[in-house]
Amino acid sequence: MKKLLSFLLLFCASMFISAQPPVPVFKSLNGYDESVAKAMITPFNNIGHQKPQKTSVWFDRTMIQNMITLINSESSTRRPVDGVRIYFALDKDGNKTIVLVSTYNSNIYNNESFEGDNYHYDYWDHPSSAALFNMHTSINGEPCHDDCKGGALLYKKSGLPDDVSCDINNPHYLSRSLCEDMVITYTTQATNINSRSEWFDIDMINGFMKIFQNSEVDGIRIYFAQNLINYPYTYYGGMDTFVIVPTTASPTDSNVHKDYFDCSFASDFFKRSVNKLKTQLSIKLRNYFSEKSDEIRKAMMLTGPYGGQDNGQLCPFNCN
């Protein structure tokens, strides 16, 4: 009888333990422990701290696919996941890199936002069983500070025409020539970095799944860049930002990931409806423009092809 009772107690205890939810991991989407990631981000909390350094970070397609699968599963089961924030960061050697963090919709209106949007709150807790955190290869990404063995093509002007198959009315579309200007402007600026992070909505992130339907695409490259001051469709002119480009493996060296600018394989490349336009400017935007601002430019920013989105939302104007 005692043996039976002991067995039943042991069985019940094991059932209780197995019924407990798995202990979450607290990580960035690119695999850094939360405490490590926040320490990497800290140098950029005071705007203007770090001088520009030619930087891009490459992620393979499996990592991005696992990341997208994870945040969509969390949105359906846990919280209203609404996007990904990319932070400027420093690695342990003092070189620039990025930290990717998932966000959810706070449902708290942010009056300081240029877009008149809600706050997008970071969250770090994820299921430890997620495929993203159990990859056999590194999920940190591959930073480089040169032309990445000839794969990073935006550090010089190509002189090539922009791909006519790209959807210029898409709020997240940037032409190749504009990307070149943004990346080159960043690398040649004399001032310090003036942003902390940029937020991208979940619809744009999900757009990568469409891109990966093309078997030639082997990943994405995220460049450090700067918005042009004279670019008419952005109110983030002169601010440091990110440019994201699909890549394809070199036919002669699979370790070389070459920027890929062909939109013909995805006619709905990052396509989504622009639903964040406001009939009135937010408080921050009204203050940003002086009475001398050009009324036509104001109108263009609300009705032009980029819908005032500037492809992402920059911090410090739209942060947590």
What is the topology?
Blueprint (H helix, E strand, L loop, with lengths): L1 H18 L5 E2 L7 H8 L14 E5 H17 L3 E10 L5 E14 L8 E6 L1 E2 L15 E3 L31 H13 L8 E5 H10 L5 E10 L13 E10 L7 E3 L23 H6 L6 H9 L9 E3 L5
Antiparallel strand pairs: 1-6, 2-7, 2-9, 3-4, 3-8, 4-5, 8-12, 9-10, 10-11
Any key phrases for this structure?
globular, five-stranded antiparallel sheet, 12 strands, about 25% helix, about 325 residues, alpha+beta, 7 helices
Number of helices: 7
Helix content: 25-40%
User: Roughly how many Å apart are the termini?
Assistant: 60 Å
Number of domains: 1
What is the succession of H and E elements?
HEHEHEEEEEHEHEEEHHE
Q: DSSP strand (E) fraction?
A: 15-25%
Q: Largest beta sheet: what is the strand line-up?
A: 7-2-9-10-11
Secondary structural class: alpha+beta
Mean pLDDT: 78
Question: Strand count, sense and closure of the main sheet?
Answer: 5 strands, antiparallel
Rounded Rg = 22 Å
Low-confidence residue ranges: 13-19, 269-310
Total count of strands: 12
| Overall form | globular
Compact description:
By secondary structure, the protein is an alpha+beta fold. It is built from seven helices and twelve strands. Strand 3 and strand 4 (96-109) form a beta hairpin.
